[in-house]
Amino acid sequence: MSVSVGMVSLGCPKNQVDAEHMLYKLRESGYEIVEDAALADVAVINTCGFIESAKQEAIDTILEFCTLKGEGRIKAVIVTGCLSERYRDEVIKEIPEVDAVVGLGSNEKLADIIEQVLSKKQPVCSYGEKSDLVIDGKRIISTAVYAYIKIAEGCDNCCTYCAIPSIRGRFRSRTMDSVIDEAKWLASLGYKEIILVAQDTTRYGEDLYGKPMLAQLLKEICKIDGFKWIRTLYSYPERITDELIDTIASEDKLVKYLDIPIQHCNAEVLKRMNRKGDKESLTALVKKLREKIPGVILRTTLITGFPGETDEQFEELAQFVKDIEFDRLGCFAYSAEEGTPAEKMPNQVDLKTREHRAELIMDNQMLISERKNEEMLGKTLEVVCEGFDKYAECWFGRSVNDAPEIDGKVFFTSDSENVAIGQYLMVTIDDTLDYDLIGTAEENLPTGEENI
Predict the structure, then answer these.
(1) Which member of 18, 66, 103, 365 lies 3.0 to 4.6 Å from 127 by CB, making a disulfide possible if both were Cys?
(2) Domains in the chain, start-ordered, CATH in brackets?
(3) pTM score, two decimals?
C-alpha cells in the first residue's frame, strides 16, 4: 500500500519552487502525491521564516497539522523551508509533536526521511550545507495558468533588516542554458505566462559570467515559441541598467511591469538599511522608466518605522509616495529579526508608531489606486481567466498589469459558455472595487488562447 504525501507551501514564489522540486522527488520515490495535505498520510509544511507574521503563520499551520496527527487523521508532520533552516532544533524542542525538521540543504533527502520517520517512529533533524539546495531540475508545477522559474538562490545584498542571507546563503545563479531549457519545457507543457524570480533578479549572472545577464537571459527566453507574458519580480533599483530597460521596452513578450522594492526614499534611512540611493536617484529612475517604457506598471514595497526613522523622514517618505504615484505598492511595519544588524540598532521605533505609519502610507496608496482604477473605466483589457467565484457568481482573472497573488484581480461576467481557465479574453471595465476591476467579457471570445 502506497504512502500519500501532501504539502503546504507558505511564503514566496521561490519557496513554492522548492516545494515543487521536493514533490517531484517524492513522486519519483514512489510516494503518492495528494493535493490536500489534510487527507494525506504525511503532511509536509514548507515554511517561510522571513518576518514575524510569516513565522507565526508557519507555526499556526504546523500546530494545525499536529492536531490532525493527534486525532489520528494523519501519520506524520514534517517541517521544511526557511523556518526549519533558521531555527533548526528549536522547532522540535518547541513543538515536539513534529516528526522531522528538514533544512534546505537536506531537501533532496526528504523521501528517505519520510521512510525513516514512518518506520522508526522517532524524530529526525537533518541539515545539509545551504549550497546543497538544488536550484534546477524537474518539478511538479503546482500552478495552472502561470509558472515560476527561479533563476538564482540566496542573496549577497546583506540589507541590515533581512535574515535571508543567513537562511539561504550566498547568491548563486543558475546557468543560462539551465534556465532556458526549463523555459522551453514549460512552453512545451502549454504555459503562456512565466515569471522569473530570485532574491534579486537584476543580479542574475554576476557570479557566473562576471556581469549582470538578466537582459540577455530575457532576450533568449523571448525567442521561445508559445509564451505570451514574461514577467520578472524583485528588481533592485540601482541595478536596473539601460540595457534592461531597452530590452523590456522592445520585446513584445516582456510585460511592461517592474517590481522594484525600494524600502524607503530617505538617504540616511537607506544607508542604515545598507541600501543604495536616495529620493533624487529614485525619482530619476522612475522618470526614466516611464519615459522609455510607455505605460509601464511600477510596483514597490516599503518599510516604515525602521530604527532611527524620524517623523521628518517618514513625512519625506509619505510625500514621496504621493508624488511618485506608484501603480502598485505594499508597505510593512518594520519587524526586528533575530540576528540581523538592525535588531541591535539604537532608537528602535515602537510598534504602534511603526504600524500607524504603515497604515498612513497604505491609506494614501488606496487613494492613488482608486484614481488609477477609475481611469480604466470604459477601457478594454486582455485578461487571463483564473477561475470562477461561486459567491460573486462571476469569473476572475488578471490583466497584464497584475502579478499573481500580489496585485489585484479583474472580475468579469460573460454570456458565453466557452470561458475556460487559462483562456485570454477581452474584458471591458465597468466598475472598480478597492484594488480590483469589474467588467464584462466581449461576446466574441478569442479562440486558440487556452493554457494547459
Answers:
(1) 103
(2) 4-132 (3.40.50.12160), 146-374 (3.80.30.20), 380-441 (2.40.50.140)
(3) 0.94
